[in-house]
Amino acid sequence: MNTTYDVKLGGVQYRSDRDTPAYIARWKVAGKAKSKSFRTKGLANAFLSDLRQAAKAGEEFDIVTGLPVSMLAARSSGPTFLEFAQSYILRRWRTSAPRTRETDAYALLSLVPALTADAPGRPEPEELREVLKVHALLPEDRRADLTAAQAVTLRWLEKASLPLTVLGDAAVLRRALDAVTATFAGGPAGANTVRRKRAVLHHLLEHAVEQKIFGTNPLNEIKWTAPKAVTVVDPRTVVNPAQARRLLDALSMVGRKRGARLKALFGCIYYAALRPEEAADLRANNCTLPASGWGLIVLERARPQSTKRWTNSGETHESRSLKHRADRETREIPIPPVLVGMLREHIAEYGTAKDGRIFCTGTGGVYSSSAYSRVWQEARKLALTPAQVASSLAARPYDLRHAAVSLWLNAGVPAPEVAKRAGHGVDVLLRVYAKCMDGQQEQINGKINSALDV
Predict the structure, then answer these.
(1) H-run or E-run covering 12
(2) Are 90 and 139 in contact (CB under 8 A)?
(3) Which of 32, 252, 375, 400 would give a disulfide with 269, using CB separation of 3.0 to 4.6 Å?
């Protein structure tokens, strides 16, 4: 523990610019400003009085938390942050999707090492994260056996982890927020990553409130502005129908049938706006494929990809309910004749997997995202100009889904129907695709002119 006798006590500041007015006790330890919020002025003054008595008694103060050693010891009777993080993961495990488990753990890989005391023998950051990833943040029956060096790392982490209660201090919480805003390499993290990690911290502290460790979520007291995240589709990624056809046709020329075998899968993403994970679990009995005219897909399940340690089966792909839908809830998508034909040809040529899946490898397995992404990049080189290949146009297979939804909206399909087919809420749909709805600009401008001429 890093301690000092350099303590300067301040006063109590009343703050009325919050949802709930608060009294802020302020003081400095080793020149670093500290603060703590209270509901009443009496509680804030009592806290400062306790600090004053500790300083008069010649106690050392912890530089990280700003608290006297005696007060820190009293607060450490509860769980450490590591212990509470482990219980948080276990409580959510049964009801969480594999990707949610992975998101939770990924955030904790930043938070747990940051919320430790300055104890001697600190392991390297990557050593701490590895022990957390393969052992400490998993249920006991999934934990990997540790090497002798990893066991030493875990013991250090268990001893150095700060008490959960110190997260009631603003300085400690800001330390946590600093951790989620940086990558593991030390650079600035992306806005979406920061928001996801901050959300995990907030939810973890909500659990602590439920268990009466905190009266209110201390994170709500911190003035912190989340970085702005990109939540709309970039129109530059969206292909037009002619470009989409060229890309799909080019797939037949990629590899020894590798591209041809994936053509209908990419067709489902473009013509039916399926998510790749939905196409991965599409089965023959989900499809109505008439000899002519429109067909129908009734989606039942999806097969997202995740790291094996986070799935129930221990496999990278696991069938589960549709995104944003209740278990066993389905989604109906009418499909145009061109996709009906592609699916009929695919099934005739390659058959289906033993479980009825339409898209599978030659051995009946599931395509990894890296495998079909490599095929897609080869098709882009064949179908697009060098300038387009270097651009963001259809850079990812998922961009075909964006192109489908944008096409439907600009064709005048009502937003509720587009949302129903794409598996979105209408509000999300209109927000995400706001920049792509420009196909009707002249028509809209004409309506405005007519209204102004009245």
Answers:
(1) strand 7-15
(2) yes
(3) 400
Residue 103: alpha-carbon gap to chain centroid: 5
Cα-based torsion angle of the residue sequence 310, 313, 319, 320 in order, rounded to the nearest 10 degrees: -60
Secondary element (H or E) of residue 299: strand 295-299
* Phi/psi of residue 424, nearest 5 degrees: -115, 165
CB atoms within 10 A of CB 173: 20
Beta strands 301-302; 320-321: pairing state:
antiparallel
Residue 135 has which token pair?
């052992």
Three-state SS for 242-268 is: HHHHHHHHHHHHCCCCHHHHHHHHHHH
pLDDT tens readout for residues 44-96? 888 899 899 999 999 899 887 788 887 776 555 689 999 999 999 999 998 88
How far out from the chain centre does Cα 126 lie? 21
pTM of this structure: 0.72
Phi/psi zone of residue 223: left (φ > 0), alpha (ψ -120 to 50 degrees), beta? Answer: beta
Q: Left if phi > 0, otherwise alpha if psi is -120 to 50, otherwise beta: which for 310? A: alpha
With both helix axes pointing from N to C terminus, report the angle between 81-93 and 98-114 in degrees, rounded to the nearest 10. Answer: 180
- How distant, in Å, are the alpha carbons of 85, 162, 280, 350 from that of 200? 10, 18, 29, 43
| Token representation of residue 292 | 């002519």
Alpha carbon distance 215, 14 (integer Å): 19
Gyration radius from the chain CA atoms = 28
275 close to 316: Cβ distance less than 8 angstroms: no
Q: What's the average model confidence in pLDDT over 10-34?
A: 83
Mapped onto helix, strand or coil, the DSSP state of residue 406 is helix
* Type of residue found at 287: C
Q: Which residue has the tokens 């939905």?
A: 278
- In sequence order, the β-bridge partners of residue 29 are 7, 32
Among the residue ranges 16-30, 271-285, 385-399, the one predicted with the least confidence is: 16-30
Residues 433 and 406 sit within 8 Å (Cβ to Cβ): yes
Beta-carbon count within 10 A of 352 CB: 17
126-135, 301-310, 441-450: which has the minimum mean pLDDT?
441-450
Q: What fold is seen in the domain 235-441?
A: hpI Integrase; Chain A (1.10.443)
Name the token pair of 428: 């999300």
Which runs of consecutive H residues, i.e. helices, occur in 211-301? 241-250, 258-271, 276-280
Give the separation between CA 412 and CA 423, rounded to whole angstroms: 18
